[in-house]
Amino acid sequence: MQVIDLNCDLGESFGPFKIGNDQEVLNYISSANIACGYHAGDHNVMFETVRLAKKSGVLIGAHPGLPDLAGFGRREMIISPQEVYHLVVYQIGALAAVCKANGIALAHVKPHGALYNMSAKNRKMAAAIAAAIADVDPAQVLFGLAGSELVKAGKEKGLHVAEEVFADRTYQADGTLTSRQEKNAIIHDSDSAIKRVIRMIKEGKVETVDGTDINIKADTICVHGDEPLALEFVTQLKQALVQENISLRKSWGNP
Questions:
Q1: Sequential pLDDT tens for the chain (255 residues)
Q2: How many whole angstroms separate alpha carbon 31 and alpha carbon 26?
């Protein structure tokens, strides 16, 4: 039986503004990436989401982003590697403290949005993120885009790295994600997205926007919690994984 991690970005509500169906989605995933207050989330939402994830038996990860609430962390910024290091340390520390107060350990770190995409290509930024994790807690797993500079930087730093693929995003020929500014960035057809996921897991391949296949390593699959049909999609995806004899990961120490 194959084993895969299924992760979702959660805790992205802010004050009175509710985003996603966190409590329901937690029933179908194995890892939760919880926003740390920079691109989304706040102290109250962080506490509530950690408690929900703990109750659901889901692994908890920090989801640090750029300081851009208005843009949901999806707008690129001119930012130095040193500042990247500082803001990642700050956000990991915040969520780690919330986890400690709730009697549960932080399991992984996954950068969010523009920070994630920029570090997939920019080696200095990737190295800053890897250094931040290593300096705070080298036991934490780094989630990075499969084959990216972030993955390479994490491995060089000696971190346990999980190579991530996306269920609902299209890929460019170089293995990067299609920009959200493009019309074909998101896959809206659930059946098509699920078939792609199964192929990435079982064959290690994905079709790019130009119709060619590229090799890809899938340790963890991302589904987006802020999408309108997130709950419906993650339910269907988990059912498909079960049918394909693929089980969800319980920890990063052992499957």
A1: 799 999 999 999 998 898 888 999 999 999 999 999 999 999 999 999 999 999 999 999 999 999 999 999 999 999 999 999 999 999 999 999 999 999 999 999 999 999 999 999 999 999 999 999 999 999 999 999 999 999 999 999 999 999 999 988 999 999 999 988 888 888 888 999 999 999 999 999 999 999 999 999 999 999 876 666 778 888 999 999 999 999 998 888 755
A2: 8
Q: What share of the chain is helix, strand, coil (3-state, %, to 5)?
A: 40, 20, 40
How far are the Cα atoms of 32, 82, 124, 180, 252 from residue 5, in angstroms, in the given order? 10, 31, 28, 24, 9
CATH code of the region 2-248: 3.20.20.370
Distance CA 167, CA 160 (A): 22
The CA-based angle 129-163-154, given to 5 degrees, is 30
Retrieve residue 158's tokens. 């000696």
Q: What are phi and psi of 169, to 5 degrees?
A: -120, 150
What's the burial of 112, exposed, middle or buried (CB within 10 Å: 0-12/13-18/19+)? buried
Looking at residue 20, the DSSP 8-state letter turns out to be: S
Full-model pTM:
0.94
Domain boundaries of the chain, sorted by first residue: 2-248
